[in-house]
Specification:
335 residues; alpha/beta; two-stranded antiparallel ribbon; globular
């Protein structure tokens, strides 16, 4: 009985003790925040230009639909991996919609002479390039994280070091593309010299298994232009991959990209090239598939992202929206 009264008396003290602890904790918190010796630590995000990234900041800080908000990015050592979010405007057809396939052109399965692949030179004109369209219409979220990555690299390497890093990266990509062109043209002496170049030898090893599935090369480093939409670009390769005619795009990476969504705007680039080929009178055939090959610096097996006709059509519509946005920006800049 005595133990019961003791337990009862202790339980009655618990609310009082809890209240005292809460008040002490609140007082300590208030003192810490209001203390003149407290200095708030600045973060890297306070240096971000609010006018430049105003829409993004509003998107990230607004409470509206926060539980349903998708995560369009996954950060990594190279900046971010952009995932194309669902966009209601992209479900609508562009105002100036043109089909991916050209109804006035011959069928996909037209047989061609197995001569040397086409290598059409890029013409200098006022038409926009695919690369410039994608760069100038880059989504604000993607531009935000790209700029963040750039600043981190400058902090790590210094401004001159970063410029040297970008220069070497560009040169490596250029050398790798030249090696792929030589391999597909069977220029053995050139290939042997390229393999001795340690900067790209691992990339060549990386794509070795992919090359075994590529046959019937029809074009290499060849210019394409969309004669109705007035844009142009340079295609890496047009060939058959496992029996299906494709636009093949070679990319290099120091980080694994096992999914198509990890490749930023590369699928849009492929779709743009497919549309251009199908509406270019220099090519008497059509293409409706794409292949994005990501070669790795460490020589590990490249990832091959195959895009079938349905997927290419989806990215084609996205590309047309980006092209319209580019043209609209051009009109506004001349006003």
């Amino acid at each position: 009985m005595g133990s019961f009264h003791l337990l009862f008396r202790k339980s009655r003290r618990l609310p009082v003790l809890t209240t005292l602890l809460s008040e002490k904790k609140l007082s300590h918190r208030s003192l810490t925040i209001s203390s003149p010796f407290y200095k708030k630590k600045r973060t890297e995000y306070e240096n971000i230009d609010p006018q430049k990234y105003g829409n993004l900041i509003h998107y990230l800080t607004s409470g509206k639909d926060r539980s349903d908000r998708s995560k369009p990015f996954e950060e990594d050592n190279a900046g971010c991996q952009y995932k194309l979010p669902a966009n209601e405007t992209e479900t609508k057809l562009p105002e100036n919609w043109i089909p991916l396939m050209n109804p006035r052109k011959s069928s996909l399965h037209q047989k061609v002479d197995q001569g040397l692949p086409l290598q059409i030179h890029l013409q200098k004109n006022a038409w926009a390039s695919v690369t410039s369209v994608l760069q100038q219409t880059m989504p604000v979220e993607q531009a935000f994280y790209l700029e963040k990555w750039k600043q981190q690299m400058i902090l790590k390497l210094g401004k001159e070091g970063f410029e040297e890093y970008m220069k070497n990266t560009f040169q490596t990509g250029k050398s790798f593309h030249a090696a792929m062109e030589a391999l597909l043209l069977t220029k053995e002496n050139f290939v042997k010299a390229q393999k001795e170049d340690t900067s790209i030898s691992s990339y060549i090893i990386s794509v070795k298994h992919v090359l075994q599935d590529i046959t019937g090369v029809r074009a290499l480093e060849s210019a394409v232009q969309h004669e109705a939409l007035h844009y142009q670009g340079l295609v890496d390769c047009i060939a058959e991959y496992r029996g299906r005619l494709c636009i093949i795009d070679w990319k290099t990476s120091g980080k694994s990209k096992p999914f198509l969504q990890n490749t930023y705007d590369n699928p849009l680039q492929i779709a743009a090239y497919i549309g251009a080929i199908n509406h270019d009178s220099n090519y008497d055939f059509q293409v409706n598939c794409g292949l994005l090959v990501v070669a790795y610096k460490d020589g590990s097996p490249a990832h091959s992202h195959f895009m079938d006709s349905e997927l290419c059509s989806q990215y084609w519509n996205k590309w047309l929206h980006r092209l319209e946005e580019f043209e609209e920006k051009g009109k506004n800049s001349t006003v």
